[in-house]
Amino acid sequence: SLNQGEREFLSSLIALVDDYNTKAGQYELAKQTYRLSLEQGEVFLSRYKSGMATLSDWYSLLQEQTSAARNYLSSMIGLWNSYYDIRKQTLHDFISGMDLVELYTKSGQTL
Predict the structure, then answer these.
(1) CA atoms within 13 Å, Cβ hemisphere of 23
(2) Which of 23, 33, 70, 89 is the residue whose CA sits 20 to 30 A from 60?
């Protein structure tokens, strides 16, 4: 049976993982949106060269690309912040697979 502190820890950890999963989905969507905006830029260039697009179209495209890039970077920051929140809560580095206390002491430092 879990005590109150353990239940609160698990509840907090579940919320952090849910947040991470949500942010991972947002990141993937933002990445795809950004890639599509870059592809639109390539299409625009061919349309512009053939006289089928205007500078006004180009300006709109630049605004869309800037917005997509901003959202992509923002989602990436949110995803990494969420990852480090989980890492801090669990004291585990999921990339290296090491316990952070062990990793810290291997570097010759003390807690």
Answers:
(1) 20
(2) 23
